[in-house]
Predict the structure.
Amino acid sequence: MSMRTRGSVRAGQYLALLCYLVFLAFPFLWLISTAFKPAPELGSLHPTWIPHHPTLDNFRAAFDEQPLLRAAANSLIAAVSAGFIAVVIATPMAYVMARHRSRLSAAATGWVVVSQAFPFVLLIIPLFLVLKYLHLINTLWGLIMVYVVWSLPFALWMLVGYVRAVPPELEEAAAVDGASRLRTLVSVTAPLLAPGIVATALFAFITAWNEFFFALVLLKTPEKQTLPVVLTHFLGAEGASDLGPLAAAAFLATLPSLVLFAFIQRRITGGMLAGAVKS
């Protein structure tokens, strides 16, 4: 392949990537534009990208119409708790699966893959019955349990990749120096796994923060509803919506996920690549 052909192929690849990025960014950019538009521009027959008269009235109306701060606090409690518990459970499981390969480890890996194929609709009735038996319907702790179960397979898969990326020779050297198994895990393995643990926890946090379906079904009291559920309250009868405040509230709800994902995206990619390397 000539240099000119290679250059053309690379230019085509960059162009395709640019088009894909524009396609992904369009909804968010339009959301930002809508959030700052005054009411007359929202109802205009000729919408524009940039508001002619930017305003913060939509943000004020959003906070006046719905309890966004309380809903955000509920989402924060659920997301932080789910991320922490998922990591605490997944970390020792991932270590055992990565270091002691057996039929049980293979079965656990199969469970991780298969569990991601089940749609929410098939799971909601069994989960509802279990939580009802435990008297956890309409509670944040019941929702947190669901989030932990849902995020645990992917968290486990990510952490297995990070554990396999840690050379076993380091642990063997520590054992030769007289360190116990617990001392080796705490002083040698754990510090090397810290970036993976942080990335996995943040991923579980983002998943729980953005989740809507389980929260809609399991939480009935308005005081306990999470932010994605409260956003639906801006929708009126027959599909009518308070578009300006809805866009403003959705923009505020999206910001934490974007900031955290921008922070962890390299670590997530590193964990996936580490999982593909055979030790």
Observations:
- Confidence is low (pLDDT under 50) at residues 271-279.
- The first helix runs from residue 3 to 35.
- The radius of gyration is 23 Å.
- The CA atoms of residues 95 and 101 lie 10 Å apart.
